[in-house]
Amino acid sequence: MAAGCCNGGCSSAKPPVDKIYRRVLWTALAINSGMFLTELAASAAADSVSLLADSVDFLADAANYAISLLVLGMALRWRARAALLKGVSLGAVGLLVAFQTAWNAFNQTVPEAGIMGAVGALALAANIACALLLYFHREGDSNRRSVWICSRNDAIANLAVMAAALGVFGTGTGWPDIAVAAIMATLAVWGAAQIIRHAREELAGIASAMPAEKIHNVPAE
């Protein structure tokens, strides 16, 4: 009887490890770790808040992929908890970017448009590569979906960084950089809300199924 309860996919069942997906996650982890270091240095050189925001986002994504690798093959309960943790961390990144954006707006910082454009183009290529790799693995539990949402948001954000570089070059002010950073903060918070909602739904479903699983797991007399 105990074995039969998981035919429908109980929360304690461990899914088979998807080796292709695992290789994709390792590749994305390496790309994002390298881009975090690159953009962190570039943001300091260019004095750009949108590049800083993107570098922090790359760090968050690297952690995202590392957590996903850790829980790959674990039961749904653990994967949902990992997604919830990633959703909260993504929201925290969004709030951090919002704070730094307000600081730069107050100080009227004017970044270096050339560095922004060059590094933004490199970051865009990296994120498009990751998004393409993950596109075919975007469906499934909240943990998989969280990985796809973060990668999708990153590609959109890099297009915005390049637009900001053009805006800074054209206007000679830091307002385009500030506007893009504000958009990136909004994207992060919105993405976090999606991930948290999906993870909470999965955890609620697991909790409601627990009594039935316990009944099925009662040893036959």
UniProtKB/TrEMBL annotation:
The chain crosses the membrane at residues 24-46, 58-76, 83-103, 115-135, 155-172, 178-196. Keywords: Membrane, Transmembrane, Transmembrane helix. The keyword Transmembrane applies. Residues 25-203 form the Cation efflux protein transmembrane domain. It is a multi-pass membrane protein. The keyword Transit peptide does not apply. It is found in: Membrane. It holds the Pfam family Cation_efflux. This is Cation transporter.
